[in-house]
Amino acid sequence: MNKLSHDQRVQVINCLIEGCSIRSTVRMTGVAKKTVMRLVLEVGEVCERYQRDAFRNLLCKRIQLDELWAFVYCKQKNITPKITSRVPSAGDIWLWVALDADTKLVASWMLGDRTINTAAIFVDDLAGRLAHRIQLTTDGHRAYLEAVEGAFGTEVDYAMLQKIYGSEWVDEARYSPAKCLGARPRVIVGDPDPAHINTSYVERQNLSARMMMRRYTRLTNAFSKKFEHHAAAVALNYFAYNFIRIHRSLRCSPAMAAGVTNHLWEVADLVALWESEE
Prior knowledge:
- By secondary structure, the chain is of the alpha/beta class.
- It is built from ten helices and six strands; from the N terminus they run H-H-H-E-H-E-E-H-E-H-E-E-H-H-H-H.
- The chain has helices at 6-17, 22-29, 33-54, 81-86, 116-127, 143-152, 200-212, 227-244, 254-257, 267-276; strands at 62-72, 91-100, 106-112, 135-138, 157-165, 180-189.
- Strands 3-2-1-4-5-6 form a six-stranded mixed beta sheet, sandwiched between helices.
């Protein structure tokens, strides 16, 4: 079987982390579609494993949590028994994200539903990556209450930011969220600094995710058809976000700001890491 060269792999990954779809990547690189999809799975596994091992004893001080909606194969409302039998993972999927407000590092993420069980696994994973007590802010999703208590107990300064929305949009604005009229902070445990009770940074990261991951672009046919490819694309995106891209406000990568690495990675470095494990 023919294998892609190092330079071809770099070219394909560059396209993917810049928000290109699979088909546009095929057109620009000349690499077959099945080969690109296989590459996503293989390099995504490397990215997930490397970040899982590297993000330990993090010196974060302020963490913000949020969830980002997408779907695999079809939306939840369109699922039929035939689809379920063919694609068990079909339907809505939520990306849970933990962002360090200071270094902008995405310290942990998880794909799943929006239930208490997934929230508990996600927050417990985050707690295991931190070196000391933090200030934590989430939105008003009630699943966080039990999840944070189970993972941190009282060893956290935790506050919720409950947003207040107006009436729903109609007609041409139906795809936009309702107008936010304000936000009400609510201290849950500990002594969080009121000046830092917000979720603005992690919500801004949601925009970056939708811009840089083609699978998260709304109202297109670029959605994931299989969960495995979806998970791999997310892992690749966050490796690029954490290690390869320079954050405009930091003038370095989030991983450098967090002390996880001492240099700015290039796509070629990621490919070399992948090739060393083949």
